[in-house]
Specification:
There is one protein chain. It contains 6 helices and 15 strands. By secondary structure, it is an alpha/beta fold. Helix 2 packs parallel to helix 3. It is globular. It binds fe (ii) ion.
């Protein structure tokens, strides 16, 4: 486990960015989408003064190592530790290419990424945050892969990636290590939402809002049927989660250590809900690459204190660059 040591009274602040989907021309001077990304990340870092930047996947769609190198150099230029997980697009060319991407990330001075054991995928690793020398919070970063085939009744269907049984064993081992070292709780970062994001949405919301334009930042009251579980945000589409429950969430519940899961993947979902004692949050999409809604641009902030953690989205106006 790598460690980050925090001092002082200020909460340990994590800024999460997600689903940037950068293109090569983002790094050409004067490119508007690149300017929007740079404006967004700069604004977020100045506003939130993060101690760690996390990145919940999909750095690009374009299978180009040069984009990964340029984006990694850009994030690293803030001189703040950063910890990414791979998204389905980062995994789309298979294990060998994913590890090559991982090596590019690891070559950056401030990047905490670890390609890890290939049996687990690419990029399963842990970070321990200490405050004034004492354990404050464990952070787990796990690969949710791309897609896989799952037998369903009489046919095979393609499902979004899931945490495998090998990873489940790794998770148990890492949590045991954290408990032994005095880390009483942890936060989990993934790209594809866990199956329970779907269960939670079905339980808490009356429907998704694909066809509705009436909601903006928050649900109208009529969309929420379980108020005590809803915290904030909106789902404009149903969760693109695995088709089956393979039991990993039950492991989280039994281990009773991970308090919060942050994912990316659904670019137009920002909900944060409590489900069976664990908080499930979507990271707010960063930048204007790939599908999106105009007003959903920014990042997600997690502030960790001695007593727990707070989560919120920080919005940045992407149009600010267009007027310049
Ligand atoms: Fe994405």
């Amino acid at each position: 486990m790598k460690y980050l040591c925090h001092t002082g009274d200020r909460p340990f602040t994590i800024l999460n960015v997600t689903d940037i989907h950068a293109k090569l021309d983002y790094f050409t001077e004067g490119n508007l989408e690149g300017d929007i990304l740079r404006h967004t990340v700069k604004e977020l870092t100045e506003r939130c003064r993060p101690d760690l930047i996390t990145f919940t996947g999909d750095m690009t769609t374009d299978d180009d190592r040069e984009i990964y190198r340029l984006l990694a150099e850009y994030i690293d230029s803030f001189d703040i530790p950063w910890a990414p997980v791979l998204g389905n697009h980062d995994n789309q060319l298979g294990d060998t290419e994913a590890r090559a991407i991982g090596e590019i990330l690891m070559s950056q001075k401030n990047c905490l990424f670890d390609v890890g054991d290939p049996v687990l995928g690419c990029g399963n690793y842990t970070v321990g945050v200490k405050k004034n020398g004492k354990p404050l919070m464990g952070l787990l970063f796990m690969d949710t892969h791309d897609t896989f085939d799952v037998p369903m009744c009489d046919r095979t269907r393609s499902s979004w990636g899931e945490i495998t049984k090998s990873q489940e064993a790794w998770y148990r081992e890492k949590v045991a290590e954290m408990k032994k070292e005095g880390f009483d709780s942890s936060l989990l970062f993934v790209h594809v939402p866990l199956y329970q994001y779907t269960s939670a949405a079905e339980e808490i919301f009356t429907c998704d809002l694909e066809s509705s334009e009436e909601a903006y930042f928050d649900y109208p009251e009529s969309y929420i049927k379980k108020n005590d579980a809803f915290l904030f945000g909106i789902n404009y589409e149903g969760p693109s989660a695995p088709l089956r429950d393979n039991g990993f969430f039950d492991v989280l519940a039994v281990e009773d250590h991970t308090r919060h899961v942050l994912c990316g993947h659904n670019h137009v979902n920002t909900s944060s809900v409590n489900y069976r004692g664990i908080r499930l949050t979507y990271g707010l999409k960063t930048g204007v690459g790939s599908y999106r809604r105009d007003h959903l641009n920014g990042g997600t902030v997690i502030e960790i204190t001695d007593g727990g953690f707070n989560v919120r989205h920080e919005y940045v106006n992407a149009d600010a660059c267009k007027d310049k």
